[in-house]
Amino acid sequence: MMLDFFDLYNYWVVIFLMMAGFYTLIAYDNLIKKIIGLNIFQSAVFMLYISVGKVSGGSEPIAADNIELYSNPLPHVLILTAIVVGVATTALGLALTIRIKEAYGTINENDIVQMNRDAEAEKAQEWGRE
Amino acid sequence: MFAATCLALLVIMAIALIRAFIGPSVYDRIMAVNMFGTKTVLFIAVFGFFSGRPEFLDIALVYALINFIGVIAVLRLVERVTHTGTGAGPK
Amino acid sequence: MLAATAIAVIRQHSLFAIVMLFGIYSLLSASIFVVLDAVDVAFTEAAVGAGISTMLMLGTLVITGHHERTPKHGPVLPLVVVMLTGAVLVWGTLDMPPFGAADNPVHQHVAPRYIEDSPQEVGIPNMVTSVLASYRAYDTMGEVIVVFAALVGVLALIGIREQKSPRPVSTTDDKPPRPVLQVMAKLLIPYIMIFALYVQFHGEYGPGGGFQAGVIFASAIILYVLTFGLDDAYALVAPSVLRPLAALGVLLYGGTGVVTMLMGGTFLNYSVLADDPVQGQLYGIIAIEFGVGLTVATVMMLIFYAFISRGEKAA
Amino acid sequence: MSMHLPALQVIIPLLLAAVIFLFNNARIAYIVSVAASWLCLAIAIQLLLLVNDGSVIEYAFGGWEPPWGIAYNVDQLNAFVLVIVSGIAAIMFPFSWRSIQAEIPASLHVLFYTALLLCLAGLLGMTITGDAFNFFVLLEISSLATYTLISLGKDRRSLSAAFQYLIMGTIGGTFILLGVGLLYTLTGTLNMADLAERIGPLQASRTLQAAFAFLVVGIGLKLAMFPLHLWLPGAYATAPSVVSAFLAATATKVAVYALLRFMFGVFGADFAYGEMHVELMLVSLALVSVLFASLIALLQRGVKRMLAYSSLAQIGYMLLGIGLANVSGLTATLLHLFNHALMKGVLFLALAMVFYRTGGSSMRHMSGLGRQMPWTMAAFVVGGLSLIGVPLTVGFISKWYLILASIERGWWPVTAVILVASLIAVMYIWRVVEVAYFKERPADLPTVSEAPLSLLLPTWTLVAANIYFGINASVTTGIAQNVAQTLLGGVQ
Amino acid sequence: MSLIIDGLSWLLLMCGAFLGISGAVGTVRFPDFYTRVHASSVADTLCAALIILGLILQAGFSLVSVKLIFILAFLWYTSPAASHAMVRAAHFMNVKPYLLNKGKPPSKP
User: What is the pTM of this model?
Assistant: First the structure.
């Protein structure tokens, strides 16, 4: 049982991180904090992949003459791509945040939702006058 | 030998983290980040020897570079924020 | 340690501190990638997570301010959702193959061919590069397109202020000059660029490649912007020059694929590029890596320009 | 050249997006985009004809045969979806020129078309790909482009909607990544066909079950499956009209396809129904979403928002079809993919024309339009009838199969819900019709003339398709039934 | 011969580690920002140098040691600059040194 625990220990740390990021993402109102949560969440998933690719006693997957056992290169490739996707999303999210700040004057999600609701209510009143 | 050094570096990194957590001023944090970055560079270098494949020092170099640029960027932007008064100053 | 950082990131209310801790988090996770043998990934994570992402976040903070109010509503529902997800994951991992064992299915299928044959089939020792640029080259093209799409999005959203600022002496009237840094940067930047080229063309043999090189190259320009200001940087590399280059990088990648198609192979099958398939692979990989590097470098610069110029406009 | 068709399908829009970005001229961008969309449609139809006999075309990128390289697999199912997506694109793209003149500043037109082409390419790629990770990459391409397109809306609310979509979409994407990662851990492969083979002996593995859960939830987020739908109404209601039309008609369809592909193509029907009992979850969620979304649609003042909620209800129908787990049910789902694209396309395009002339799309803006824009409103009415499921329109065909399927299963309450929801649809469509035809135009709104021909023509093409495939349904039902039988294969 | 080299690099690495730790402790224990920067930057510089020298001894005369020298040069080049920039920024932002307000609690700008 003890051995089992260590077999999976790495995965559990990753899961903890994932949950921490996910929590930040959905529990906080600040848009930038949400994006950071998103990043933590994603990097935890990356770590999961890389853990999967590791072979104990293996080496970096760059061929050399005196090395027999390599770690698995495929997860590395996938995660390279995923990291890039992550940064692209982050850039776009931040750009949106800037625009939201300019349009609403705040980056707190609650306030924004409230403002949107107010706008709806105003429109409703207009309609009611007809 | 390398293992011991790695361990020591990890301890230093942990201490730097403590400073980064408790702050209190924004500059303390920047300093902690800088120190942390330097130690990461060393850690990568030593770890390369530890695992027997020391060829990959490029990464350490990139870390050093990124760390430096990061610190400069933070400083510039801290200055700018306090100058333009977007906030009440760094805390 | 990573967990501690993550918690600290969540607990903090000053967004500045959060962003800096996030930088640390990124460096830490990159170190872990090194420990787990993923040098290429560590390379990218350091350049992207600790470098580009952090800088973009800072650029955003300049505009949006950096105080977070304490949330008003109770965190019960999110906590439940998170716990549920976590429980599913833990439950799922119970049947996962043990960490690091060489006989896991992951290491039994598909991957052995990359490890055993790629040095002969593709002709380069870095297996990550050969999988990235040849076996799964189409994914990498998708990756370049994603970066390109992000550029399109950022330009559509915040654009780049191209004209010079009305006050050319903006840095000198309210702040003292920074001679030490400027001299440093001037000395340093050429070396950074050479290093970027080295990473670009050494990617076949060691960790590195087009993406990392692009980020490093962009970071040299970012350093220039930070020390000399945006207007001087425009004089050095104007956004109007970078814009077509970003598209050209994508087209270089795609064009390589089209050429292989015209020469009778399937899309991105480099073996047809030369009489000797292995030589053809090499040509193809160099061409597409260059495309990747070009696009990534220009896109990163443009995005950074966009954020910074928006910040100056706001100021 | 015909051997390259699967690759060209995606690469043409991808690379042309970069080309128009390079030229940086709005008119060139428009012409190139339209040409690209038409080419895509031609290729898609060609592919559908090629696989109509049940064969599968495989295209290996880079010359590396799967599972080592990435491959595209074209079979009847995804060729069918390809035709839907590219067909809608071929109609929407010509439409877009006049429509965005009114809604998007001229300096952004090139970027708009670049994003639109990238979005199209991403959607096509998601459909055609045979590789689980490649699916994720293309998903992100289309998502990033979609966030951009949504945020181009005139109202500032489009920004917050785009942000919300970005967050939820990325959570979805990451969940999918996680699911794919778990699958990879178990099998060591990423190719879908290879995965399906290797999953066989692992049925009871808990990791496999977790992977299934993450994939379903991840795709569910993209699909706006109830209760993960929060992003959809805001996004559709605030995006530029032509973008709403394009997304409503294609994006969720591709997500439904992805769900089908993973459920049947990777995990296998036995696992999905036998091991995970996904049908119970799907049917209950679908019923809730059909009823609630229809009711909420009834309460909306903005017509766009109303249509967005109605889309949610329609997604519910499609999930219902999957949940019923028999051939008629799946046939209904597939038909509804096609039909819903047609009818929502018409409705949103009609709205876009209203927006073009009046500058708004609330009920107020539509009042009295029946006489001022007769052709536009007529199109809207046909789309509405189709949505309700009146005979002689496409909507009737898919509802018919859905009801058949529920009766086959003997689930009478389901039948009842479908009928009730149709009644609610009658009510909300009637509200618009009433306002448009029986109400005077408010004095403070200017009188408007009929929309220009360049907008009417694409819309009426779709209207014609609505009626044609409603009367002559043999082509679509034939394909749908074929596919449904292959997918369910082992179960029946 | 190799024993001497091993012993020497062992010594260098340990000294470097010790310096690093003492510098780190300094950053936690010292009362204000300037003293903390002092602790970290001065100790850091020598620590990095010692550790890298230790590694160079191990690597022998090869490409690896050239890279190590690059790293060292880069660190020596940038870390004082970074410290300088930090202190300078802090100074202009009116962070008061500890001695200027002795007797009061440490400044927390």
Answer: 0.89
Q: Domain with C21 in it: what CATH number?
A: 1.20.120.1200
Q: Are residues A77 and A61 in contact, defined by beta-carbon separation less than 8 angstroms?
A: no
Q: Within a domain: residue C42? A: yes
pLDDT digits (tens, 9 = 90+) for A59-92: 777 777 667 777 888 888 889 889 999 999 999 9
Pair C63, C145 in one domain: no
DSSP secondary structure code for residue D202 in this structure: G
The confidence score (pLDDT) of residue D37 equals: 93
This model of the complex carries an ipTM of: 0.88
C27 contacts in chain B (CB < 8 Å) = 36-37, 40, 63, 67
- The span from the CA of B37 to the CA of B50, in Å, is 20
- Is residue C134 within 8 Å of residue C281, measured between CB atoms? yes
Top pLDDT among D169 and C179 is at D169
Q: Which value, in Å, is the radius of gyration of the alpha carbons in chain D? A: 21
Residues C157 and C306 placed together within one structural domain of the fold: yes
Is the model more confident about A20 or about D134? Answer: D134
Is C138 a domain residue?
A: yes
Q: Considering only residues 222 to 281 of chain D, which have any Cβ-Cβ distance to chain A shorter than 8 Å? A: none
Give me the domain span that covers residue A39.
Answer: 2-129
**For D383-414, b where at least 16 C-beta lie within 10 A, e where not — what string?**
bbbbbbbbeebbbbbbbbbbbbbbeebebeeb
Q: How far is CA C123 from the centre of its chain?
A: 26
Least confident of B70-74, B80-84, D21-25, D55-59: B80-84
Rounded CA separation B17/B13 (Å): 6
Residue A38 to residue D167, Cβ atoms within 8 A: yes
The pair of three-digit structure tokens given for residue A43, joined into one six-digit string: 């990097």
Give yes or no for a cis peptide into C244 (omega within 30° of 0). Answer: no
How far is it, in rounded angstroms, from Cα C131 to Cα D68? 9
The percent of residues in chain C predicted with pLDDT above 90, rounded, is 7
pLDDT in tens, D334-391: 999 898 999 899 999 998 888 888 877 777 778 888 888 888 888 999 989 988 888 8
Chain B environment of E23 (Cβ under 8 Å)? 12, 35
Q: How far is CA C11 from CA A27, C18, C75, C134, D373, in A?
A: 12, 9, 13, 44, 57
Encode pLDDT of A41-57 as tens digits. Answer: 888 888 888 888 777 77
* Chain A interface includes C210 (CB < 8 A): no
Which of chain A's residues have a Cβ under 8 Å away from the Cβ of C157?
A: 92, 95-96, 98-99
